Amino acid sequence: MVNLSTFSRFAAVLALVVAFAAGSYGTDLQWPALYELDDWTECRHLYCMVRVILSPTGEPPTSPNFDTDVVDDQRRFRRTLLDRGVCLRSVDALSGQYRGGKLPHFPTSAWNRSDRYILDRAHFPPTFHANESTERAASVVISRQLAAQYPGLVAYTEIEYCLEQSSSVHNYEQTVAVSLALALAFGFALSWNARGALLRDVRSEASSRKPFLLFDLYKNFAMVGSVLAHCVLFGPFLMPAKNIDFVEQTMTHPNAKLIGLLSPFLMQIFFTMSAMLLTVKLLHGAPKAPLAWSKFGAIVAHRLIRLQPLNLLTIGFCAIAYQHFIGGPLGPRQLIVEQGACRTRWWMNLLFISNFNMHKPCLPHSWYISADFQLFLLIALLLLATLRWPRKTPHLLACAIVASFLGPFLTVLWTDFDPIRPDSLHEMRFFLLDSAYLAQLYTPFYNNLSWSVGGMLAGLVYDRYQRQPSASIVRRVNLAIGVAFLLLLAYGRLTLAASGRISPEDGRCWLAAYYAAFKLSAAVFFSAGTLRTLLTEKDFPGSAIVRMGAKLYYCVYLIHMPVFRIVFSSATAPTEVTPELMVRMGFRVFGISYALAVLLHHGFEKPVMGFLRRVLLHRV
User: Fold this and answer.
1) Closest CA to 302 of 556, 602, 610, 522
2) What's the pTM value of the predicted model, to 2 decimals?
3) Are 412 and 419 in contact (CB under 8 A)?
């Protein structure tokens, strides 16, 4: 069982080491804070979030001399792109004080690729849009503030969204109270009706043998780790951070690249586990009885029944209920934007192709579920081909390994971004919306194929060992672990070095080769390591809590991101971002997600899955 207290201390210490080991660097200019917010709780009028673009040259924003190339996005946030929360008490009076004539248009030609100005009002419904009077009023307020504090700066202002603050606060408080009451009532009723089954689960023998109990243990670890990782990594960008310099130093520390190179392993290992389990199931009894398409269809149907009910419920919640959970000025940027995406792109999540939708993503973290399902089908078809043409098995496996290498190799070769992490802090600030790194490299299934192929090979070896146990198999697996580990270290070091010195004239061939070889070595190492453990170690602790955590993993993973967005976007004032705060809020998100997962699993997911299996699979 995962020790949460130990994990919390470890995460906090790791974040502190990365943060405070960073060397300080000088600032060229003194800029206004990125976030300044009028009092959200005291405002009883129209509250607007305003984007402010500054010109340090004193040129108006429509001038060709409007200076934007001031900050290196690789190391700093755009100090020329600010967020201001403004409480407009008298729109008409303020609008009448505007002396600039017609509102200037945004100078899109003055911004280069790394300065991408993301303000698309299509993300928001018309009720959140501002009219011209409101735009003028906001411009007057912002100009006054800048003139008093930073004379000489010229600003272009554009409202992102507005909402009636008094109704928003009341709606949020009422929604939270009703949700809590319903959850408590539902939980009490569910516990009372299922008390007998719960007692049997708790009293069940912990030593019951289960071939893949190691996977249950890892699911418990990753369940906590993925929630904390998302909160620590993205939390500062969902909150109005006050100490933005601290966030910059943490994100640009040299060790941050190493963490960025290794951290994806936390989720990618699941591709290996999924492929290995699928391989073992399909090969069970295959030599004696040829594999029937009905068995393959049943396995795919079970997979869909496992994933789809909760998937539909979560999509429905995001599409309908998000608007009632706006608890802070930045809430609409997170909740309403995703709500609109879920209302228009829900079908991509339903068909498990959401990993190809990073422009207007609904549940962005569902890319993993979609990629896993795509790899699941691909590996299943590959296994069917090996069983149908056994003499072609070596050729098919060789083609799969080559394809595993070519996916990330060609992606890195034909793109111009850093393959280790997003290009700029500007992308992180906007939660990787429309990020080329995320859309082209991180989420496509073909760039994660090596992990599934490694799991399939591990499953083939495991099946062979179960039929004919042999010490030579264990020795070969040990050798594969050692060789893969050495290659992993070598290619990891080469990837970091090549990423640090790459330039357009150097070409990207070596960087692409190192990165693809690194991913392939990592997949071999973790696949062989998992196989080695399963072949020889049988005495894993299998408590009821571990088994329950494994059942709840998918549910916690799917719902933790909506909970994360609601909790973090409810901040109403600029906040000092610290590792301790991020970890503490991360455990709050995990606690809420786990409690909801228990209710949803026993009250919705489990009954619906049982019903669908009885109706659809009664003949299989």
Assistant:
1) 610
2) 0.85
3) yes
